[in-house]
Inverse folding.
């Protein structure tokens, strides 16, 4: 009897070990595979939803391509690819003339890093300077005026200096 | 019925029955493991197929989207430049708006000597001469109420007299 019991325990131990090996080498990788597949599927569905959104949006824009073309043309006009300053200079001088501003000096620096800086000095009344600055800001070439100084010279006209910037590039 | 088998034989028989029960249990566990593995494997195969389908769908969508590359490029340019323009124009504010704020805040009893508006450093400096401290206080409070103004500091020069207050106001503009 004792002999049989000993053999039985040994046999059961071998079976238990075989089961453990079966679970470790066969069942466990399958479960890990399920877990990985679920994660991949989740990411995949998320990407599909995102891409479908992008596609729908682009299809809408293709249908309204004429509107997009106008928007691109406006941007190209406000912020051209080339650094040309000629048209802006003409419009600036025209704005000065129509607002009663007398320009004493005006120059552009060499355009670098997507912007061209200009310096303008002149004289005018406060309201003339205000209207002139407003006109510059409304010019259809995007520009900013980072520095504006106005000084009272004890005569009727105020002198002012503008350091402005226009932008270009893709 | 009386069991006439010797005691040893009885025990052996019970032991055989016990072993049989154990092996039935062991076999049941084996079947259970096999069935579980078959189910897991089938489910994993289905998932893998779904993952492949999703991957194919992504490839298909990417190819379709690549046909709109020019529209995408145009849209990116419009969006980028528009946001850059808004940011440059409104940080802190266009100069015409700053001049309008000064015009609103300064009364006739104040004579402005100079204005310096620096939007890079968000600083506006106004210097001049006022007839009274009241007019300076009014100017200061008018400036402070404007939403583009963050802080106002007023300095009155020591050389001022009771009828002529020489001042410098430094206004810090708020950067949105």
């Amino acid at each position: 009897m004792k002999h049989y019991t000993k053999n039985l325990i040994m046999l059961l131990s071998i079976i238990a070990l075989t089961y453990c090996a079966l679970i470790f080498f066969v069942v466990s990788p399958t479960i890990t595979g399920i877990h990985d597949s679920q994660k991949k599927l989740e990411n995949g569905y998320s990407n599909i939803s995102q891409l479908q959104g992008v596609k729908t949006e682009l299809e809408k824009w293709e249908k309204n391509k004429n509107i997009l073309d106008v928007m691109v043309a406006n941007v190209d006009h406000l912020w051209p690819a080339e650094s040309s300053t000629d048209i802006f200079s003409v419009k600036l001088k025209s704005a000065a003339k129509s607002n009663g501003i007398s320009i004493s000096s005006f120059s552009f620096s060499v355009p670098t890093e997507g912007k061209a800086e200009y310096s303008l000095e002149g004289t005018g009344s406060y309201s003339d300077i205000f209207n002139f600055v407003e006109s510059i800001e409304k010019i259809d070439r995007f520009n900013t005026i980072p520095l504006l100084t106005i000084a009272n010279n004890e005569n009727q006209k105020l002198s002012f200096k503008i350091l402005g910037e226009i932008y270009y590039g893709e | 019925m009386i069991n006439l088998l010797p005691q040893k034989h009885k025990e052996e028989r019970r032991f055989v029955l016990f072993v049989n029960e154990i092996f039935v249990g062991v076999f049941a566990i084996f079947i259970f493991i096999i069935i579980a593995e078959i189910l897991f494997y089938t489910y994993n195969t289905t998932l893998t197929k779904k993952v492949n389908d999703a991957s194919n769908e992504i490839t298909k969508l990417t190819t379709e989207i690549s046909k709109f590359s020019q529209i995408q490029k145009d849209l990116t340019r419009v969006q980028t430049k528009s946001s850059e323009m808004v940011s440059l124009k409104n940080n802190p504010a266009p100069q015409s708006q700053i001049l309008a704020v000064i015009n609103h805040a300064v009364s006739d009893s104040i004579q402005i000597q100079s204005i310096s508006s620096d939007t890079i450093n968000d600083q506006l400096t106004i210097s001049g001469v006022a007839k009274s401290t009241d007019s300076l206080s009014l100017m200061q409070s008018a400036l402070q109420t404007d939403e583009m103004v963050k802080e106002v500091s007023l300095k009155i020069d020591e050389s001022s007299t009771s009828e002529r207050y020489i001042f410098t106001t430094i206004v810090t503009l708020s950067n949105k």
